[in-house]
Amino acid sequence: MSVKDQFINDAEKKAFDTKHRQTINFNIDKYHKSVAKGQQQYAEGKLELARKKAKNIKWQTMERLDYYLLEFERVFTSRGGKVIWASTADDAMEVINKIVKESGATSVVKSKSMVTEEIELNERLEKQNIKVFETDLGEYIVQLAGEKPYHIVTPAMHKSKEDIADLFHRKLETAPNLSPEELTLIARKELREKYLSSYVGITGANFLVSDVGGIAITANEGNARLTTAYPRIHIAIVGIEKMIPSINDLPHFWPLLSTFGTGQRLTVYNTLLLGPRQANETDGPEEMYVILLDNGRTDILADPKKRESLYCIRCGACLNACPIYKNIGGHSYGTTYSGPIGSVITPNMKNRDEYQHLSQASSLCGKCTESCPVNIQLHNMLLYNRKDSMEQNLNDTAENMSWKIWKKAMLSRKNMNRGGSGIKNLLFKLIFKNSWGKRRNIPKLPKKSFNQLWQQQQKGK
Asked: Domain 1-41+310-395 class?
């Protein structure tokens, strides 16, 4: 089955899964209420100014990304940190495997990171007999379930508290029907000892901060701080687009990320890490590596029309706003990054021929653009992707032929009037029975078109 066919099959199942729809709608409704409350921290008119400023900062950064990356490397390495440039996921994993193997570690602790999902870190390390322990509660839940993250910010959004209680009962042999508080305490107990037994901690980063050579990590549970403080070695894997120019930009981006990501004024733990433990410090890793991952990002950077998609700060707001995502869910996309932003960047970072269908999975309603804290014109990005697919002849033959026939008919009134309504209705039925007609009644054309009725009326005057 092709990637496209798998997407259509999974999307159809989820769209008609009532329980799934109820869980997602409940959780997203709670999110929207929280965001509305969180946005109140901005005075009237200030939120739009904050969005515009964030976009301008990211625009400036992407236009001079080479300069900021080199500045980051220079400052970070001056304090004993090590920077590794990885062109592909394979390059990144080769380095990570080497570091872990040389450390003698048999397990690693890991905080929430979508870029590690992108390079399939867990699966690849476990093939080398290295156990990976997810320490974020949501990631821990989906790891126990043997699933991929469902959402960029809330990996277990698709599970109700009853689902999680049942999962813990089956996997950890806990008592059935425990409360969320009890489940959290069990997870805490299970994970605390993992920090003490792991030599290596792996994280992503929300931002790379150029002028101070640091990585900024935002979290609500404290697990990221433990992952970076307890193990002897800290590896941070970060996409090159996460760069911001200055430490002075953090007070602007942190509240935006919190407000649009979870509806908070500010997340609980906001950490800036500047390198390994220094001589006068008591905390932190002995060794710290930052892996700067490209993996298709420079291809997007090279396209002026698509470059804007690299401004994304991974808040997940566009997913929660998207009517498609709310119907088919995160797993249906079959990619690391789902929802509107995933549909924009995935075809440009992976094989366009395989993933160009994602850009069609949109109503183009513009809610994604409206909800983006960095004001990315996501609906336009989706249209650019569609245009590229057409120009590269990636649409299937039947679709191309249909549009050619449609264009020829629409440009000629004579062609539009040819054939009676019976023939046209038959064609409608044959062409649309497996798409529109599968779930809806196919429209029936009247015996006479408006043009024919108009001509008849004019003759009667």
From this structure: mainly alpha
3-state secondary structure of 64: coil
DSSP states of 168-212:
HHHHH-PPTT--HHHHHHHHHHHHHHHHHH-SEEEE--SEEETTT
* Distances, alpha carbon 226 to alpha carbons 78, 105, 282, 316, 447, in Å: 24, 17, 14, 24, 72
- The CA-to-CA distance between both ends of the chain, in Å, stands at 61
- Going across the sheet that includes 107-110, the strands are 82-86, 287-293, 233-239, 200-203, 107-110, 131-134
pLDDT tens-digit profile of 96-124?
A: 999 999 999 999 999 999 999 999 999 99
Tokens of 103: 């450390």
Q: Output the pLDDT for position 423.
A: 82
Q: What is the largest CA-CA distance in the chain?
A: 98
For the segment 75-90, the average pLDDT, to the nearest whole number, is 97
CA atoms of 62 and 67, how far apart (whole Å): 10
CA neighbours closer than 13 Å in the CB half-sphere of residue 419:
12
Structure token pair of residue 93: 């994993």
Token pair 């005057």 is found at 461
What are the CA-CA distances from residue 285 to residues 231, 273, 278, 281, 399 (Å)? Answer: 6, 11, 9, 10, 56
Nearest Cα neighbor of 224 from 239, 209, 234, 212 is 234
Q: CATH says 64-295 is which class?
A: alpha beta
**What residues does each domain of the chain span?**
1-41+310-395, 64-295, 410-459
Enter the pTM of the model: 0.90
What is the amino acid identity at position 1? Answer: M
Q: Tell me which of 226-230, 335-339, 389-393 is least confident.
A: 389-393
